[in-house]
Amino acid sequence: MDKKQKLILLITGVVMFLVIGLVGYNLLMPKPEIQPDDIDVSEKTQIEETIPEKKENKAKEYVNIYFIGKNSNNEEVYKAVKREYNKDIDGSKIKFALYSLFRGPKNDEKQYGVYSEIPLDAEIINISENPDRIIININTAYVTGGGADSLYKRLYQLIKTVKLNTSIPAYLYINGQKADVVGGEGIMISQPLSDSSLDN
Questions:
Q1: Among candidates 174, 183, 101, which has minimal Cα distance to 146?
Q2: Residue 85's domain spans which residues?
Q3: DSSP β-ladder status, 76-84 and 134-138
Q4: Nearest by Cα to 80 from 68, 70, 61, 65
Q5: Is 4 inside any structural domain?
Q6: Would 47 be classed as within a structural domain?
Q7: How far is CA 53 from the centre of its chain?
Q8: Beta carbons of 61 and 97 less than 8 angstroms apart
Q9: How many domains, in total, are found in the chain?
Q10: Residues facing residue 129 across a β-bridge
């Protein structure tokens, strides 16, 4: 073995000794405890906030809206049209159903022969919901024109839609006044609204 080989062997031995010494030092020396303030959570927090929320698969909900159509005997009947409920449009089920009623049947629903007696300029002013009562405030256009037969039909459309979509007592108001008698024909309404409200 010449001098060069001896030198390489010596250097290699020294390096190995240093490496083994460092490893041993790290294993045997006590490490300081990590304190909560030493942990940087900002990056972790940011990542967590960007994770999209898991959406639950909820069963679809529907409301029923009453329009008018004809049965197999060509007789006029009240027909319930089922609409998928979307709480983001009008809020509660009863609001969604009533606003849908006043907007009238959609084009694909009209193909089944349904129509509405509610005038185009009739509008819901507001709907107030409480645990013990619902107040449906409508403008005067709802009870104007069309004659007694048309007024009866539009009132029944409203009553049937209300009764099918809530169990809370509901009251009809016209321009902020409780409706006891409506229209030029003086149709009497008993309240809260029920299937017998117009039986006078």
A1: 183
A2: 62-188
A3: unpaired
A4: 65
A5: no
A6: no
A7: 17
A8: no
A9: 1
A10: 134
pTM: 0.68
- Per-residue pLDDT of 58-101, as tens digits, reads 678 889 999 998 888 888 899 989 989 887 776 789 999 999 99
One-letter amino acid at 161 equals T
> Token pair 């645990």 is at which residue?
131
CA distances from 30 to 24, 25, 27, 107, 144 (A): 12, 10, 8, 79, 90
Q: Are strands 134-138 and 170-174 parallel, antiparallel or unpaired?
A: parallel
- Do the domain assignments include residue 101? yes
Taking every pair of Cα atoms in the chain, the longest distance, rounded to a whole number of angstroms, is 128
Q: Name which of 127, 120, 193, 189 is nearest 158 in CA terms.
A: 193
Residue 69 identity (one-letter amino acid): G
Q: At what angle do helices 93-103 and 147-165 cross, to 10 degrees?
A: 150
**What is the CB-side half-sphere exposure of residue 40 using CA atoms within 13 A?**
1
* Domain-embedded: residue 29: no
